[in-house]
Every structure is written in C-alpha cells, then in structure tokens.
C-alpha cells in the first residue's frame, strides 16, 4: 500500500470577493522511499496543496478530498490533536525561507531539542547529544558550539541545514521540501540537494519536492506532478516528462527554458496564469495553449492517463527539442 | 565601430565598519580590483554568489556611490574625477537601472502613468501633455496597453510590473541599463517573455546591458561577455562561449557544474564545493578561494593571484599560472 494516498484534493479560500479555488483536484500516491517533484508557477497551488496535507491552512480555507490516507491513517477524520502527533514526526516539512522559518529568539539547539521532547517526551536537555549528532549529519562543522547560536549568526545555507536537521530529527516517513533551495546560491543549492537525497536514501524517506525550477526537478526527482492554476495537468516519470511531455503546458514550460531556445529569442508562453476573476470557461490553459481547438474553450477536459487535456500530445510528436547541456565541460 | 560606453579599471570600493568605541574601524573590501570594457549593444553578465560584490558594482556604475579608488569612465566622462553637477546629472540619464523585485521597486501609491512620468519631470522640461505622449510611447514599446496608464502597481502581475520597471529605465533614452537580477523573481514562462523583451529592446536601441544574475542558463543565453566574481575580486572574465565551453578558474568550473541542467539524458560529474564563501571583513590570506579550492597549494595561501590572459579569457589563478592544472 502506498505511504501517502490523496484523491481529488480541493482547497477553497473564502475571500472578500467570493470563493477562490486554490487547489482543484490533486491526485497523488507516494510510496516509501520515492522522490516526487511537484512543479508549477506561482499561484498553481503547489504549496497550498501540501499545507492542506499538513493541516496548516488558516480557518478561511475549506479542504475537501475523496481520500487522504497517510500510512494507513485517515487524515480527514482526524482531529487536530491527533494530527499534531503525526505532523513533525512522521510527516515533516521544510520551508522556502530558512531565515524566517526559524525562531530568531531561540537558539538552534533549543529549536531542535524542542521537536524531540515534544514527540518523544522527556526533558529537552536529554536530547542535546541527539541534536549534536543531527547537526553533524547535515554537515555543520563544530556542531557542539553551534547548538548555542541563534539563527542570525548563521548563513542562509547553514539555517537551511538546521531546518533539515530539525525535520529529520524524528526520522519522518515523508519529508515535504517546499522550494528548499530557492533562496540559496547555486553552489549551496547543490550542497543542500545532495544532502536531501543522501538523507532520503539513508532513512528510506519519501520526499516531495515542491519547486518551480525545472533543472532541479531533472536532477533529483523520479516522478513529476505538473500543476497549472490549481489543477493537476500531468503526472509522469521524470525521464518521460523531459523527453516527451504529453500536456501542452508541460511542453511549453520546458521549451521556455533558456537551454532549449532555438536562435536568439526564447519560446515564451504568451499571457499569464488566470487569477480569481479571469478564469476561462473551458480548459484553464486554453487562452495560452498553442494547440487550442474549439472544444478546449467550451468544455473542461477530463483527466485520462494522468493527463488533463482534450488532445494530449503524442509521445513521439513533441520529442523535437533536445536540451543542450550547458554545464558540461 | 561600436562606441565604448564604460571603461572600468581597477575599481575598488571599501566600506568602514565600526566595531567599538575605541577600536579602529575595520575595512570591508566589497570590491577589489574590477576592470572591464563595455561597448554599445553589448551585454556583460556579472555572476557570483551573494556577497561577491555584484550589487556594489551596480551601485558604482549607477553613480549611487563613488569608488574608493580606480578609474571609471562612463560615456567618455571620468566620474572618479571631480565633475560639475550638470555633467553628473547629464550622465545619470545615460545609466539607468532595473531592480530585482518588481513588487518592491514600484511605489504602491502611485499610478503607473505617474511612476513613468517622474524621470521626465526631474530630467526634462517637457510639459504634461508631451510627457504623457512619451509615457504612452514607451508603454507601447514594452508591451503595456494604454489603459494601464491609470492603474496602480498592485493591479499588475510580476511580469507586467517588471515591464513597468523596464519602461521607467528606458524613458530617458539611456545608453546603459544595469539589470540587477531582473528575472529571478519571475516564473519560468514569464521570465522568457521578459528576456525576449530585453533582447528586442537591445537590438532596437543599441543598449548596453550590465546583467547581474546568478542564473547561468539565462546568462548564457543573453550575454556576450561574462565576469565571474568571488569575494569582491574578479576571478575570470571573457567572451561567453569561451567561458562556458572552457572555464579555466576552479571556481568558475565549480559554479558551472553546480548549476543543475535540464538535460535528463546526460548525468554530469559535479565538482563539489565544500563550505561557504568567507566573510569579506575577514578574507583568507592569499587567493580568496583557497579554503574551498581542490587545487589549493601552499603558495595559494600566501600570494594573491593577478589577472592574466589565457587565450581569449583572463583568469586570476595561481594554480593555472604555475601550470598545476
């Protein structure tokens, strides 16, 4: 049985101007030890979907799903108290901004030991050795002395390492990383991604990587879920997706990358992601789609083989662009 | 023959840091010995990790701050020498800047029309009708519609806001535009639109760009020349093809290999950089890169490398100089 099973997850927000559907039918199944990437542009619902899973959304939101099971437990039927026993222990999440997601008033050591004492009971100080071990594991030099430092004394990369140490403290079965490297430099990004993959292998965790960076996806993930305006438009094996995307949006997104440009100009996607007020009637991508037909404008497509499109691209047809490897020496 | 617009030689910028009442102030060398030429219609990319002095360089070029030493000639005028206020004002019109965050760089309480008119109010003697005309003209060029004139920034998406910021930079007809991470806050599909716009504008007006970025795939696409910096010092510079195909400095090599590639069919060998960039207040002796460099030798810890020419590129590396790599 899959570790995480989500079917038709939908999140609505009550706003001053009416209801806003941020997530519209995500289906996701994740097995133990698997790396799945969720990609999409801002506003595509990738973070909100995962926050809904964690139960971290504000009261203005309404979360509904046909099924939401984690490790055999039904998350939908659970009350907050029960859910908090799982959150942070079996499912944990790393956020985008390492500097703002740590508490600036508490030492790094306090924040790590707090997690452990909360979930396993006992005094915080009993877990000091474990905290040092964790900091060493995530590659922080002089871990003993770092235990007493405050987040402002650490660099962005170090803060992200501390966050990771905190999140793997209880050896979670599922780790959700929400844009873990977006705020970091490329060399540090490479270090953090390597670290995440390494830890994922050691602990046999399942890893959900939320990102908008296609190159990070290409280098780390095994399976990819592509979201557009809250809808899940494609779910594919990473190799398949990069070689032959089936949904026009995935194809356009990949072709917009500078590495895949032919000639001087990039293959930009015209227009913008629809907002609350300008949602089109039929397929949400239809105003920007280059393959648009009459039916796309009138009717919403129904997902077939994990692809939400009236006319999915043929696997062979879209295999025209081959990435030029810019980084090779 | 294209016109030489910027000639920078051995630019330094030091900041004093007060550490205590009786202690002598320390020096932070934000920029130490940067030099380059930039011609009309060219794009120079400045890359490096945060803290390497990219933004300090932008501040010097836009004349927000004065260099501590070195020579900076912009459009034929040496701005490191004393100049009259009128020449300075004239010169500021020729260099304009686009900032990284399109949400923070536009005044939320001003309409787009007002934001775009402001440079004209300050720098020209046009009346309001002529100003409006000019603003509508530039809005059309960057792909904004005329009804956007009366709108506020919050009514726009990130990509459109960046178009407004570009329009504001171009309205005084500058020759040089400093782009400080202009697309890093934008989504991939919007990023492509803005990059295309920048390329088209450059072709049309013969603009020279200083393109500050950390995204090497964008840099490779847009730039003609590249300047790689580490801790305030240039480590390698040269034409874009040369640097990308044959990076010589160990840092450039590591930077290029750390950039993830979207080519799924080819796994690359990655040069692993350990540690982080040291603090510029307390830089390591010798070559600034030596604590993280895999080719570091004893000599690297003692003497500082100088820029030397190898083929088409210039590299500052002792290991290369001593033919160790």
Structure, briefly:
The complex is a heterodimer of chains A (329) and B (325). Chain A has 329 residues and is of the alpha/beta class.
Task: Explain what the structure shows.
The complex is a heterodimer of chains A (329) and B (325). Chain A is of the alpha/beta class and 329 residues long. Chain A is built from twelve helices and eleven strands. Chain A has helices at residues 46-54, 80-86, 98-101, 108-120, 128-137, 143-146, 156-168, 186-203, 214-220, 238-243, 248-255, 294-298; strands spanning 4-15, 18-30, 35-39, 61-64, 67-70, 73-74, 91-94, 174-178, 206-211, 223-228, 231-237. In chain A, the strands form two sheets. A six-stranded mixed sheet of chain A has the order 7-8-9-3-10-11, with helices on both faces. In chain A, strands 1, 2, 4, 5 and 6 form a five-stranded antiparallel sheet that branches. In chain A, a hairpin with a 2-residue loop joins strand 5 and strand 6. Chain A is globular, with a radius of gyration of 21 Å. Mean pLDDT of chain A is 88; it is low at 317-329. Chain B has 325 residues and is of the alpha/beta class. Chain B has eleven helices and twelve strands. In chain B, the strands form two sheets. Chain B has an eight-stranded mixed sheet with strand order 6-7-8-3-9-10-12-11, with helices on both faces. Chain B has a four-stranded antiparallel sheet with strand order 2-1-4-5, covered by helices on one side. In chain B, helix 6 links the parallel strand 7 (176-180) and strand 8 (208-212). In chain B, helix 3 crosses helix 4 and helix 4 packs across helix 5 (158-170). The longest helix of chain B is centred in the middle third of the chain and has 18 residues, at 188-205. The chains are: A alpha/beta (329), B alpha/beta (325). At the A-B interface, helix 7, helix 8, helix 9, helix 10 and helix 11 of A face helix 5, helix 6, helix 7 and helix 9 of B.
